[in-house]
Amino acid sequence: MLIDDCVDVELSLSLSNGKPRLAADILSLMLAELKQNHTDINNAFRESRFDDALELIHKLHGACCYCGVPQLKAICKRLEKQLSAQRCLPALDDILLFDEIVETLLVWHAAHDIHQVFLLDK
Description:
Layout: H1 9-15, H2 20-46, H3 50-64, H4 70-86, H5 92-111, H6 114-117
């Protein structure tokens, strides 16, 4: 997975109705909580708390709908569908892909100043 493909700035701007500051704020909020959300989701999987995992994934999926992170949105949707249908551990390949996408986004976040990405003055 390429680091530069994990955030779609144009999509983020479109989702924020062309408002760069709003796009930056929404993306920043999601990214600020992503590491803890990832940990909480993986703990729920490990502890077979599938209803909790579903709730956490659903929340993250909802946040992704406003941020311009299409890969994370897609894998959250897939995990959410699996959890909704069968209240058991989703496919291992999907969990591993989720982990990879989250890690890529965290690396992207550490390497980028969101204000500069959206061409904002601080």
